[in-house]
Amino acid sequence: REVNMLRQLLSAAAGAGATVALADAFPDAIPSLGLSKPKDIKLTYFDIAGAGEKVRLALMLGKIPFEDDRVNFQRWGELKPKTPFGQLPVMEVDGETYAQSGAMLQYAGKLAGLVPKDPKACLRVDEAIGLDEDLRGKIRPSVYLSMDASVSPRAKKAKIAEMRKTLAEKDIPYYLSHFEKMLENKEYLTGSKPTVADAQFVVTARYLSGGILDGVPTTCLDAFPNVLAFKKRMETHPDLAAYFERTTKKN
Questions:
Q1: Fewest beta carbons less than 10 Å away: which of 6, 15, 55, 91?
Q2: CB 224 within 8 A of CB 177
Q3: CA 201 to mean position of chain CA atoms
Q4: How many CA atoms, within 13 angstroms, populate the side-chain half-sphere of residue 215?
Q5: Cβ(131)–Cβ(176) under 8 Å?
Q6: What is the rounded CA–CA span in Å between residue 169 and residue 152?
Q7: What CA–CA distance (Å, rounded) separates 112 from 106?
Q8: pTM of the model
Q9: What does the alpha-carbon distance between residue 202 and residue 191 come to, in Å, rounded to a whole number?
């Protein structure tokens, strides 16, 4: 009945604006309006959070069935030449293979109703994702250095300690202060419902406070109550709570 009503409204509506408004109002009905709905999704990534976690979370938030294929590093050596760009994650959709986690997140979000159809609302979502990417960009150099075999262990340790000190004292508080403001009077980054931005940022928040980065205290979120509340809200979300409890115990 809902789909028929939507079709009638869309037929009667004048212009794309009405379609956008109705699409946002009834996101669950969108596949029935002619957009492709996949039969099989397989997400392949390492058995860590990393770049694949945001995609997993988006699919789970939308109750989209998928195969969560987790590979060890031995299998990765065999799989790497078969991937589009020599990277993970990769996603198979009805037998076709795709790469780039950002593209996968957007695809999962569109299926799950986590990407607004209204361009202006989507701009806010992309703004939050961009801020998270900027924060991650500050973290990556020290992580890459830790894997650089050309640097002596002693020099590497000293340099990483220096970089992490800057992260902990300057960069992380700077970016978290912006997220703190973004979350004022809101449950999620852009409003009352989660979007792909929330699926991405919660992974970063858990990473920062998870004791994974030497030199970054697990209390780094404590000065930002809105961020802490957001993290807890995502971790206890009905579609995510069991997954987070299972994977946290595992790690």
A1: 15
A2: yes
A3: 6
A4: 19
A5: no
A6: 26
A7: 10
A8: 0.86
A9: 15
pLDDT at 135: 98
Using DSSP's 3-state secondary structure scheme, residue 41 falls into: strand
How distant is the alpha carbon of residue 20 from its chain centre?
A: 24
Please identify every stretch of the chain with a pLDDT value under 70, giving residue numbers as ranges: 1-35, 249-251
Q: Give the largest CA-CA distance in the chain.
A: 71
Question: What are 157-163's contacts with CB under 8 Å, separation 24+?
Answer: 160/214, 160/215, 161/214, 161/215
> Which helix or strand (DSSP H or E) is residue 70 part of?
strand 67-71
Give the residue from 112, 104, 97 showing the smallest Cα distance to 51: 104
Half-sphere exposure of 220 (CA within 13 A, CB side): 28
The pLDDT, as a whole number, for residue 248 is: 83
> How do beta strands 90-93 and 41-46 pair?
antiparallel
Which residues are paired to 45 by β-bridges? 70
C-alpha distances out from residue 49 to 8, 21, 84, 138, 215, Å: 43, 34, 21, 18, 20
- Return the closest-CA partner of residue 210 out of 160, 244, 183, 175: 244
Which structure tokens are listed for 81?
């030449």
Query: What pLDDT, on the 0 to 100 scale, is given for residue 36?
Result: 73
Q: What pLDDT, on the 0 to 100 scale, is given for residue 1? A: 52
To which H or E segment does residue 57 belong?
Answer: helix 53-61
* 69 contact partners, CB below 8 Å, separation of at least 6: 42, 43, 44, 45
Adjacency order of strands within the sheet including 41-46: 67-71, 41-46, 90-93, 96-99
Give residue 106's identity as a one-letter amino acid code: Q
